[in-house]
Each structure stands twice: as structure tokens, then as C-alpha cells.
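The pair is quoted verbatim below.
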Amino acid sequence: MSMTRKAYAYVTREVNEPSAVLAFRHRDYPEAGTQVPRGTVDADEDPAATVVREVCEECGLCDARLIGLLARDIEAQPDDPGDYWERSFFHLVAPDAPDEWEHTVTGAGDDNGLVFSFFWLPRERLGDLWPGFGDYLHLILR
């Protein structure tokens, strides 16, 4: 069995009663679907530090503020028997973020250099997210 740790970011513009979550599509790879920011936790890294780093690298929102951990679970990877992900889901807030923008990913990950197109996904369109990405959004988008 192998375990990979992942940190997911639910970024909103409001702290209380948020109406939408930050989502993106790969500009050049639309088949990747609609996602929320996430990344792999490095061996010597805390998941909270990972999510802040990933939001800066993937979104360009280096001033997003971490509100807290929402949930943590273990998910078996159906395409790779014996592979599991420990998933940590965090709420962050970026009140001054624009309505839409594109950002070229920075950092040392496999996504370095990819261009992501960001937008705010309203509550009524959460079903558009790639499976598993919205599993805990009900905790903040009521």
C-alpha cells in the first residue's frame, strides 16, 4: 500500500456565507475538467503550508488567507489498486480576487508552466467539478 498526501483549497471571497468557490480549467487541456486548486504535500511539509503554497503557485493568489481545515479523509485510487490518498480540505479567503483571470503555474511540480483559467463557481453549478473535488464544499457553501 502506498499513501500520497494531497491538500485541496476551497477559496472563497467571503468568510461567512460564501456564495461561490474558486475553480479553474486547464486552458490547453479542457478534457481535465473543472477543478479546485490542490497539490501534493511534500514529505517535510504540513498540509496547511502546502495549500497556501499551492494557491500562490497555481492561482497567483499569494495573499489568500487560510481560514482552516474543513475535513481530512483517506481515498482509495480506483485506477491504481493499493494506492491511497490522504486528502486534506481547507477553506481560504481571497476577498480582492478578480472575477476571472488566467495564471501560468509556477513551482517545481508537474504542472509548472501550464495555464489555468480561473472563475468563481456558484453553488448551483458545483456538480460541474471533477469527481471528488467538491466532496466537502457543503461545509462552507450552505
The longest helix spans residues 47-59. The first strand starts at residue 2 and ends at 12. The radius of gyration is 14 Å. The chain has a mean pLDDT of 94.
